[in-house]
Design brief:
alpha/beta, Rossmann fold, 5-stranded parallel beta sheet, 10 strands, 14% strand, binds N-carbamoyl-L-aspartate
Length: 315
Amino acid sequence: MTTSLAGRDIISLSRLGNGQIKKIFDLARDFRRMFDRCHALPPLMAEKVLALIFDQPSTRTYGSTGIAMVRLGGLLAPPFIAASVASSLAKGETFEDMGSSLSEMTVDVIAMRHKKVGSAQRLANGASIPVINCGDGTGKHPTQALLDVFTASRSIGILDSCTVTLLGDLKNGRTVHENGPLFGRFGVQRFFLVSPPLLAMPKRIVTQMERHGTTIIQTQDLEAALKESDLVYATRIQREYFESEEEYDAVRGSYVVDAALLQRTNPNVKVMHPLPRVDELATDIDKLPNALYWEQMRNGVFVRAAILALITGAI
Ligand code: NCD
C-alpha cells in the first residue's frame, strides 16, 4: 500500500494505512521539534488557500487548523461560519455542489465541521481538492483521534501493553468513535468503556476496537477501571444531541475526574480530554503531571500542519 497522502481526503481513519498514519506522526514530530527550537515552521503552504467551513461550535479544531495553515505560510479563505444559515447551504445547496464550487474558486484544501453525519464525505464527493473532516455530528473526528494517539504515544511511549479507559458520552462523542479504534491499532491491550448505560459505545465501534485482539470491558465502575488504567480519556456529555433538558439532566455530572479521585485510585494515571469540559474534568488536575490535555492542544497544531502539508502535496 502506498504511503503517499497527496490528494487524499481525511474523512475516516479506517481508510488510512498504518504507514500513512506513521508518516503524519513523523512529520508532526519534526514540525514540533522545529517550532520548539525556532518558533517557526517552514513556509510549505505559501500561496495555498484553506477554506474553513464550520457549522458547529469549535475553538480548538477551528483554531488550530487555521493556525497550522498560517504557521506554514498559507492563506485562509473568508471563513464559512454558521454555514447552514450563512452560506448557500441555507438555500438548499448540496454539500457536493459546495465542494465543487470551492474547488473552482482556486481553493487548495477544505476543512469542514457540520452536524450531519456523512456531510464531509458528501462535500469530498463534489470537490476536486482534498477535504478534512473536522467532525461530522456524532460520526467521526479523525484529526482529533490522530492528535490524541500522537500525544499518548509521546507521553507513554509504546502503547502495546497499555490499558485505556474511555469515559463519558461514548454514544454521541465522535472523538471516542475514532480514537478507540486507533488506540486499538496502536496496540492498546485493554479498554474499559465507562459510561451511563444510556450513553454506551455503539456496537459497531466496539466491533472495530475488538478487531485488533483487544479486550473490552464495559462498566459503570470508574474507580475500579482507573485502578487498572494507564490512561483515562474523559469526554463531555454531548448536550446538543439530547432530545430534552430532562434527559440531559438525568445523566449530567455522572462522572467527575478530579485530583481526589486520582489520589484514591491511581496517582499515576494520565488524563486526556478533547475539551471543552463542562463538569466531568476538574480544574484541580490542570497543573498535575497527569494532565495531558495541554499537550493535546499544542500537538493539535503540528498534527494538523502535517496533514495539510501532506494531503496538498506540499511535502
Ligand atoms: C470535541 C468535538 O467537537 O467533538 N472537541 C474538539 O474537537 N476538541 C469534543 C466535544 O465537543 O465534546
